[in-house]
Amino acid sequence: MTYIIEGQTGDWEVVVGLEVHAQIASKAKLFSGSATEFGARPNTQVSLVDAAMPGMLPVINEYCVEQAVKTGLGLKARINLESVFERKNYFYADLPQGYQISQYLKPVVGEGVVVIALPGAAPREVGIERLHMEQDAGKSLHDQDPRRTYVDLNRSGVALMEIVSKPDLRSPEEAGFFVRKIRSIVRYLGTCDGNMEQGSMRADVNVSVRKVGETGYRTRAEIKNVNSIRFIMETIEHEAERQVEVYETGGEVVQETRLYDADLGLTRSMRAKEFAHDYRYFPDPDLLPLVLSQEYVDTIAATLPELPDDKNARFISDYGLSPYDAGVLVAERETAEYFETVARGRDAKQAANWVTGNLFGALNKKGLTITASPVSAENLGALLDLMADDTISGRIAKDVFEQMMDTGKAPGAIVEEKGLKQITDTGPIEEAVDRVIAGNPDQARQYRDGNGKTLGWFMGQVMKATGGKANPKLVNQILRAKLRE
Amino acid sequence: MSLDTETVRAIARLARIRVPGDAQDELANELSNILGWVEQLAEVDTDGVAPMTSVADMTWPRRDDTVTDGDCRAKVLANAPERHDGFYTVPKVVE
To answer: Closest-CA residue in chain B for A283?
Structure first.
């Protein structure tokens, strides 16, 4: 599974570290009382603090601190009881303060670990370097006017968690799985909605390459603000290839900030920010150090929900699921809850098959998420019950499921309404079998002459004659008996 | 510690302050004096002394997560040199 770039001079591997920016799911901003809701009219969610008017003082949002600590605990990381907010100084049109309040030397969360499991590979630990809180900047629109840039400060001051990984990732796929895992964890915790389309989660991608066998790291390039998992994977692929080519043509990779151009499928240098690297951090004199008590951290730890890895392990041991099925089911908290409702007191393997197969397929076709599923978990469970007690056959169940998907009705009601109850009385089945055999003497002779395949054909005919409602097991038994007569 | 004019130019650039060429030597000199004066503090032994973060012994005030502010576009845009359609507008920032 190793990802290798074959160059002219030998094999290269890629070294990737990610900085994932996750917006804290708070109602108000990190240091002001303005709203954070997505999609508001420009500059309507801006207070005088966010606009950096002189004399305004930041006051921290308690809830945001709690979410950062909770996320740190979810990343199995050390919580620093004392952390410090610093000013990161740079000039940009959408940064009214002239600095971003961030954490630098003393972040609220230290080292942790996340486990990623790629299909067909052993689970692997990826180190977390740190998590710190910081303010988001405003938004610049460059395409509204040929000569002006438009600035909307609604995002200015929104609370972000920057989650920094160690340079432990070795392929685009691993990076993709890592981001999915982080998203899964923050969604389980409810600390970030993980919505990449709305920019609630985005990543800076640090990429370097080295010859296979080298142990040190070479110079890296940072690709800023990549806003989808697909783009994160693409940008690593393209940037690694570019760096290999630079080295192999006798050049040197320079440490710089680059942007990913998805249309052209390449990264390019952001020359405009060449001078912006000297951020001159210093502790923000408006803010005291953030001091937390161990008791406070323990209280939060006690409220943590079961996280994806623990759930995954439990699904495998308690329900006997394959690691693959368990992985698919725990990726989203809602899916896991749905599955457990269906599986409770029923055949778990069958429940998993229905959820990951029929349900996912049908939802996909309709473009719906599981929370918007017309078939509730209770109703899917009821459908499995109808199969278990032989009220309907597996084949009919598929039809009933389709109708549940279209109407949202309970399976019992559909079976009743359409008269789909399985025929388990031998009388009507025998009648149908007699009719089919009498009508097809040639095929019946073939069977008697030893052509076993014709049995399947007869099954199909009898099922057709009974509208698919006959119990297949009974049909099989009766057919065999009658064909032998 | 003394600053050379090269460093002064870099600092001026980071702070977006235009310093004419003939003023740079003098500025370097003044800044060096200030740094030298502050550096006297280094003579004090501060090993094992926690940094003083505030003169008042106080706990940090914190806010609840409720929306209490914002929705004052006219006010926040009032001092902007340029605005259009509810946006601030600035000379094009080319990336």
So the answer is: B53
Give the distance from residue B53's alpha carbon to the nearest chain A alpha carbon, in angstroms.
Answer: 6
For chain B, domain boundaries: 5-42
CATH 1.10.10.410 residue ranges for chain A: 426-483
Please give the single-letter amino acid code of residue B69.
D
The number of beta carbons lying within 10 Å of the beta carbon of residue A39 is: 6
Is the pLDDT at B55 greater than 90? The verdict is no
**End-to-end CA, chain A:** 59
Would an 8 Å CB–CB cutoff place A62 in contact with chain B?
A: yes
Backbone region of residue A77 per phi and psi (left: phi > 0; alpha: psi in -120 to 50; beta: other values): beta
Give yes or no for A436 touching B (CB within 8 A): no
> Six-digit token pair at A158?
């929104």
Phi-psi category of A213—alpha, beta or left, where left has phi over 0 and alpha has psi -120 to 50? Answer: left
Chain A (130-149) residues lying within 8 Å, Cβ to Cβ, of chain B? 140-142, 144-149
Domain B5-42 listed as CATH 1.10.10: no
d(CA A82, nearest CA chain B) in Å: 12
Q: Mind listing the pLDDT tens digit for each residue in A47-60?
A: 999 999 999 999 99
Please indicate if any CB of chain A lies within 8 Å of the CB of B64. Answer: yes
Q: What confidence tens digit (pLDDT) does each residue in A381-418 have?
A: 999 999 998 888 888 899 999 999 999 999 999 988 88
Interchain CB contact of A268 with B (< 8 Å) = no
Give per-residue burial for B48-61: e unless 16+ CB within 10 Å, then b.
Answer: eeeeeeeeeeeeee
Query: Which member of B60, B84, B95 has the closest CB to residue A270?
Result: B95
Torsion over CA of A331, A337, A341 and A347, rounded to 10 degrees?
20
Q: Is the pLDDT of residue B57 over 80?
A: no
Count, residues in chain A:
485
Q: What is the ipTM of this complex?
A: 0.88
Tell me the per-residue pLDDT of A180-205, one tens digit each, with 9 for 90 and over: 999 999 999 999 999 998 999 999 99
Which of B16, B63, B86 is opposite residue A43, by nearest beta carbon? Answer: B86
If you write DSSP's letter for every residue of A198-256 in order, what string do you get?
A: TTSEEEEEEEEEEETT--S----EEEEEE-SHHHHHHHHHHHHHHHHHHHHTT--PPP-
Best to test chain A binding among B57, B64, B89 (most A CBs inside 10 Å): B89
Nearest CB among B13, B53, B65 relative to A275 is that of: B13
Q: Which CATH architecture has domain A426-483?
A: Orthogonal Bundle (1.10)
Q: Using CA atoms, how far apart are residues A224 and A260, in angstroms rounded to an integer? A: 8
3-state secondary structure A46-83: CCCCCCCCCCCCCCEEHHHHHHHHHHHHHCCCCECCEE
From the list A49, A146, A148, the residue facing B90 with the nearest CB is A148
pLDDT at A149: 95
